[in-house]
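Late entry, evening session. Most of the bench is empty. Finally got around to the prediction I had been postponing all week. Sequence below, unchanged from the version circulated by S.P.
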Amino acid sequence: MSEEQIRASIVGDLREWQKVVLVDYDPVWPQLYEREAERIRDALGSGALRIEHTGSTSVPGLAAKPVIDIVLAVVDSSDEDTYVPALEAAGYVLRVREPDWDEHRMFTRPDTRVHVHVFSQGCAEIERMVRFRDWLQANDSDRELYERTKRELAARDWKYVQNYADAKSAVVEEILARARAAR
């Protein structure tokens, strides 16, 4: 993603020159996910069509940035009036708006290291993220490859964390190709 695209998608202040810090897997992460999922369900009720723990904190044994990634499916993620006010009232802060990437929205919380990724129900990105999680949970060699790649990339300096995420894209696609082939 270019700097212009990063700047265009950020809501609020853009944080630069972030060091990516990975930590060993923490068995508390699933509990943190459950707490946040409950907060989201309480805020949105039946408007929360699907809530999934994704990202590296959802894979036992995998080192990760200590940020709980959550995928939230709503009817239409472009219709912010149907979910943004309720999430904000529950303490979440809209940080990313990407209408050109599946109408993705991303929220954080000031009191918890969490990223809530909002997509429309049926969005292919939801299934992609869940497939990646499930494959890493079941496949030791790809989990080890992914962790090795993450550690190598985390040792570098990045202007934006998004640059780190983008640098992982090739290995993520390689792993997903194996996951798709195994179906």
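Two things to note before I forget:
The chain is about 45% helix and 20% strand.
The longest helix spans residues 29-44.
Will write this up properly tomorrow.
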